[in-house]
Amino acid sequence: MGPDIVTESISIPLEGAIVVLEPLAERHRNGLWEAAASDPHVWDWMTVRAGDDRGLFDAWFGEAMRLARDGVEAPFATLEAAGRRPIGSTRYLNLRPEHRVVEIGWTWVGSSAWNTGANVEAKLLMLGHAFDVLRCRRVEFKTDARNERSRRALAAIPAEFEGVHRKDMLVRHGERRDSAWYSVIDDDWPRVRANLERRLARR
């Protein structure tokens, strides 16, 4: 992986049959706002409720764009493969090229895309890019320890549960968040890829 993790190679379009992940760009803003605002429950466990208010959304979007320009994170717009309608977003973050480690996070999709395979395929695309192109040794995930839906989805990858970091961060209004940590390592990747491909084939 080496230095490529913080250059353009980490942020390229990733195309699947259900979704396309495009590096976040201004052209995605309005479509993502529509997806973000479509169901307030999408943001129940996020650190900011960007779907509740256009100002909050624009602040979230602007910060994601800034982090991308600075090479700190690599955010994507998640689009329907058919029609290219924005349905959500995800990103690589906490880049540690010296250890060949990335995190996948800030993942959300509008509720209309739940149970469609969109999230499963997005994970397959991002894990494949991380392990097969960037040559990562480890991909990390974390979620609010109380977020059972997210934890079930991570276990179904399957990502390895590594424990709960207590008082890991402060979120909205200074609320304490305990974070559940998961990972997939390069040794796991062949088994994980086969499982994700089986799940998509059943659809």
Produce a short descriptive summary.
The chain has 203 residues and is of the alpha+beta class. It has 5 helices and 8 strands, in the order ββααβββαβαββα. The protein is 31% helix and 31% strand.
Structural class: alpha+beta
- Listing every helix as H and every strand as E from the N terminus to the C terminus, the arrangement reads EEHHEEEHEHEEH
Rg is 16 Å
Runs in which pLDDT lies below 50 for 5 or more consecutive residues are none
Mean pLDDT: 93
Share of helical residues: 25-40%
- How many H/I helices? 5
Task: Give the distance, in angstroms, between the N- and C-terminal Cα atoms.
Answer: 33 Å
Q: Care to count the β-strands?
A: 8
The general outline is: globular
> Main β-sheet: number of strands, strand sense, barrel status?
8 strands, mixed
Proportion of residues in extended strands: 25-35%
Placed side by side, the strands forming the largest sheet appear as: 1-2-3-4-5-6-8-7
Query: What kind of oligomer do you see?
Result: single chain
Question: Any overview of this molecule?
Answer:
- With 203 residues, the protein is α+β, with helices and mostly antiparallel strands.
- Helices cover 31% and strands 31% of the residues.
- The chain has five helices and eight strands, in the order E-E-H-H-E-E-E-H-E-H-E-E-H.
- The protein has helices at 29-37, 54-69, 118-133, 148-155, 189-201; strands at residues 14-15, 19-23, 74-80, 86-96, 101-109, 138-144, 160-170, 176-185.
- It has an eight-stranded mixed sheet, sandwiched between helices.
- A hairpin with a 3-residue loop joins strand 1 and strand 2 (19-23).
- Helix 3 packs antiparallel against helix 5 (189-201).
- The mean pLDDT is 93.
